[in-house]
Design brief:
This protein has 189 residues and is an alpha+beta fold. It has helices spanning 2-12, 54-61, 87-111, 121-130, 136-153; strands at residues 32-35, 38-41, 46-48, 66-67, 77-78, 84-85, 175-178. Helix content is 38%, strand content 11%.
């Protein structure tokens, strides 16, 4: 889905686009297998931007049960060692991490052509964190949370070109999680 959306954004900006599939199947991170009589999703498990998102209509049409966590939910955060991080510390650091992603997108939108293509999102994170008055462990935690962005978009932040961050879209609205896998609709649905 992301590749098709990227192709549309580029096409809308006047770029001639050809979409290629790197795998022996279409779908990117959307993949499903059957094992032991059960359908298992191996790829995506959430929908960003639940307000008027056509993916929610597709989820409904394919009998996928979705759940949107309440705004007052207090998720647990863990570091790479598996130790739980205090809720307030995690929220503060997570906010800074997402702010850096948002700033990177805006920077790319305004300075895109002047940014060397080999400058990565990791480089941007590091330059922002160098200017922060915080401890080294706190900077590492923010960077660790930044690496989660790479997991979300399917490419490590070391490999994401800052120049092209403008292609990323942070869709407004909620975040719906899949609670069940999708099923092909029957004819007539």
């Amino acid at each position: 889905m992301a590749g098709l959306r990227c192709a549309k954004v580029l096409s809308d900006k006047g770029v001639k686009v050809t979409v290629l599939e790197a795998r022996d199947r279409v779908g990117g991170r959307v993949q499903q297998i059957e094992q032991g009589g059960h359908l298992i999703d191996l790829g995506s498990n959430w929908i960003h931007g639940t307000e008027d998102n056509p993916m929610l209509h597709l989820a409904s049409a394919t009998n996928c049960i979705c759940f949107e966590p309440p705004e007052d939910a207090k998720p647990a955060f863990y570091n790479q060692s598996g130790d739980e991080i205090s809720h307030n510390l995690a929220l503060d650091h997570s906010k800074l991490s997402w702010d850096i992603v948002t700033q990177a997108i805006k920077y790319s939108q305004t300075q895109g052509e002047s940014i060397p293509p080999n400058l990565s999102l990791l480089d941007y994170y590091q330059s922002v964190l160098e200017k922060q008055e915080m401890s080294e462990p706190s900077k590492e935690l923010v960077l660790e949370m930044g690496r989660m962005w790479g997991n979300i978009v399917g490419e490590p932040i070391e490999q994401q070109s800052l120049r092209y961050m403008w292609l990323e879209e942070c869709i407004e609205g909620g975040l719906s999680h899949y609670l069940s896998t999708y099923q092909k609709p029957t004819i007539g649905d």
